[in-house]
Structures are given as structure tokens and as C-alpha cells.
């Protein structure tokens, strides 16, 4: 049995995709009301109303039922991951984090958070260019599965691959996590550029220099260049910086347009930008786009001033 903890869009989509293969899947929702509604309607009315549940997909609000699974997918926002892991009973079940970001309090990514309290359990992260709606309706999607233990990773890869969901594995958890986290920061920047009406050329420049910034950060913390150039880095960056289906990109649009944004919508890149900026300062790293995004979020600068500052940086080789 595979348990999916978190009945948001991504968790629900994964549960649907895996259930279509005939696997025994149980999806955990935090509230009794949400679990009952999804079980009755056989869909997630809030996030994926057009993706009906396969017959074999079960929904529960009883965490004990989910933790009996042989594999657990943790599809909760990164800033809530630690609290969810703390609720789980200790065991030997592999824990696969399906979230992206850097924890504000600790500066850690998903596998680091899991290791803090579940050091003896296999920790992995599933990341890459994907929208929940595409996965739920069976559109072809390729993701990265990162796990330090390659034997465990190969087993998870086989378990979680479906006819429409292809997984590539790597032992470079640092690179996979940094790619998944930092691309959200760059998506906010690209959204702000487009929201301010600066055009596609400016977005292309922002995306490209954002990727250079990701590579610079990755090299300091031990990420492999090929990981950041793969699905979990460049692939996810391109998708997130060019589509309004991305929450981070839409948040950036609102910043550029000086419009309000729904406070209930999770924007992981906002927290990641602040966490990464502090990490970069401690490491004496130059991260101009991350710094600018943080200033925009905090209201310490506006688009015209931010653009002027970036354009007036010292000239250098690419």
C-alpha cells in the first residue's frame, strides 16, 4: 500500500495517477469534513474537480491508516513538513517528500527535515517540472526522484513510476532540492517582470541569469551541475517561469502589477527567498535576484528601483 499524506492538488494528483495502475492507495486529508466530502464526491472539488477518483483510491482522515503503508508520500507545504513528520509513528517506511523549498527556521530542505527526527528511515524527494492537473488526467510527466541510498531509490523508482509518470533517479539530494526550491524564487522574479510590462526579452534575461544564480549557489553547497541542468533544476525553472498555472509566477505577476494576492495561496518561493538570502549572506554569496525578490516581497523596493539597481551592476563576463 502507498500512503499519500496531504490532499492538496499535488498529493491528490499523485494518488489518482498511482491508483490508476491498480495499486492500493490511501490519501490522507487533515480534516474529517474534507475526507468525507472527497469520499462522497469521488473527486477533490477544491483543487481538481475534473479528475475523478479511480475506484481503488481510498480517502481517510485517520493518520494511523496511512502510516501502515509500505511507502509514504508527504505532499504538504515545505514549511509544514516538520510538523507532519513529527505526527508519524517511527518505523522503516520510506518517506518521500513531495514539496519544494527551504525551511525558514533551519535553512534545510525536505530530506534534511526528515532526517532530523527520522534518521533511521529512508528519506527521498520527488521533484521536477509538473502541474497537478497534468498528472491527474494522465498527461506525460517526467520527474526526479532523489535519494542518497541508490538501492532504496531504485526500489522507489519502480514503485512510483506509472505509464504516464516517468521517474529519473539521482543520489544528489542537494542538487534536486536546491533546484526545486530556487526555481520558485526565479518564478516570482519572472512574474514580476511580466506583471510590470517589461516584456518577454526581460523575462528571458531574468530566467537565464536566475539559472546562473542557481548554479552559483549549487556549486557552493555541493550540488552536481548535471542535476541543476536536469528536470529538477532547469526543467522545473522553465515550466514555472512561463506559466500562470504556477502559484509563484502568479504571485510575481501580482507584485509587478501592484495588486493584492490571495493570502490563502501557498507561495513557497516567498519563504525560500528569505531563507536563501540569509544563507547566502552567511556564505558571502552574491545572489542579486534572490535579494531583489526578497526586497519586493517585503516592500523595501519597487519594480523601477529594482530594475535600475540590477541594470547598473558592474559589467562582467557571462
Alpha-carbon Rg, integer: 19 Å
| CATH topology-level fold name of the largest domain | Rossmann fold
- What is the 3D shape? globular
> What does the largest sheet look like?
8 strands, mixed
> What is the CATH architecture term of the largest domain?
3-Layer(aba) Sandwich
Helix/strand structural class? alpha/beta
Order of helices and strands: EHEHEHEHEHEHEHEHHHHHHHH
* Main CATH class of the largest domain: Alpha Beta
* Percent of sequence in beta strands: 5-15%
Mean pLDDT value? 96
> Into how many domains do the coordinates divide?
2
In terms of quaternary structure, the protein is single chain
Number of helices: 15
Work out the helicity level. 40-55%
Topology summary:
Elements: E1 2-5, H1 9-19, E2 25-28, H2 32-41, E3 57-60, H3 63-66, E4 71-74, H4 78-87, E5 95-97, H5 110-117, E6 123-127, H6 132-136, E7 141-147, H7 150-160, E8 165-170, H8 173-195, H9 200-221, H10 225-228, H11 231-240, H12 247-257, H13 268-282, H14 288-298, H15 303-311
Parallel strand pairs: 1-2, 1-4, 2-3, 4-5, 5-6, 7-8
Antiparallel strand pairs: 6-7
Helix pairs in contact: 4-5, 8-9, 8-11, 8-12, 8-13, 8-14, 13-14
Question: Explain this structure to me?
Answer:
The protein is α/β, with parallel strands linked by helices and 318 residues long. It has two domains: 2-171, Rossmann fold (3-Layer(aba) Sandwich), CATH 3.40.50; 181-312, N-(1-d-carboxylethyl)-l-norvaline Dehydrogenase, domain 2 (Orthogonal Bundle), CATH 1.10.1040. The protein is 52% helix and 12% strand. The protein has an eight-stranded mixed beta sheet, sandwiched between helices. α8 packs antiparallel against α9. The protein is globular and about 55 Å long. The model has no long low-confidence stretch (mean pLDDT 96).
Amino acid at each position: 500500500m502507498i500512503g499519500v499524506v496531504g490532499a492538496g492538488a499535488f498529493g491528490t494528483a499523485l494518488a489518482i495517477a498511482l491508483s490508476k495502475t491498480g495499486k492500493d492507495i490511501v490519501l490522507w486529508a487533515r480534516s474529517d469534513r474534507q475526507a468525507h466530502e472527497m469520499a462522497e464526491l469521488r473527486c477533490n472539488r477544491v483543487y481538481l474537480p475534473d479528475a475523478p477518483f479511480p475506484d481503488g483510491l481510498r480517502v481517510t482522515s485517520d493518520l494511523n491508516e496511512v502510516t501502515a503503508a509500505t511507502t509514504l508520500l508527504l505532499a504538504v507545504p515545505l514549511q509544514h513538513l516538520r510538523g507532519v513528520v513529527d505526527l508519524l509513528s517511527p518505523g522503516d517506511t520510506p518517506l518521500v517528500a513531495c514539496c519544494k523549498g527551504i525551511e525558514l527556521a533551519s535553512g534545510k530542505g525536505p530530506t534534511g527535515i526528515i532526517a532530523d527526527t527520522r534518521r533511521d528511515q529512508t528519506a527521498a524527494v520527488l521533484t521536477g517540472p509538473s502541474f497537478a492537473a497534468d498528472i491527474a488526467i494522465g498527461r506525460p510527466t517526467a520527474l526526479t526522484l532523489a535519494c542518497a541510498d541508490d538501492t532504496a531509490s531504485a526500489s522507489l523508482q519502480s514503485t512510483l513510476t506509472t505509464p504516464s509518470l516517468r521517474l529519473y533517479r539521482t543520489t544528489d539530494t542537494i542538487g534536486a532540492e536546491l533546484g526545486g526550491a530556487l526555481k520558485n524564487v526565479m518564478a516570482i522574479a519572472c512574474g514580476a517582470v511580466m506583471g510590470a510590462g517589461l516584456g518577454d526579452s526581460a523575462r528571458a534575461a531574468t530566467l537565464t541569469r536566475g539559472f546562473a544564480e542557481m548554479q552559483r549557489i549549487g556549486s557552493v553547497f555541493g550540488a552536481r551541475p548535471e542535476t541543476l541542468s536536469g528536470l529538477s533544476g532547469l526543467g522545473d525553472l522553465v515550466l514555472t517561469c512561463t506559466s500562470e498555472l504556477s502559484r509563484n509566477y502568479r504571485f510575481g505577476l501580482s507584485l509587478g502589477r501592484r495588486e493584492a494576492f490571495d493570502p490563502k495561496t501557498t507561495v513557497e518561493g516567498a519563504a525560500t527567498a528569505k531563507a536563501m538570502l540569509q544563507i547566502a549572506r552567511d556564505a558571502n554569496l552574491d545572489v542579486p535576484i534572490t535579494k531583489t525578490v526578497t526586497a519586493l516581497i517585503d516592500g523595501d523596493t519597487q519594480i523601477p528601483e529594482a530594475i535600475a539597481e540590477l541594470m547598473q551592476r558592474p559589467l562582467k563576463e557571462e
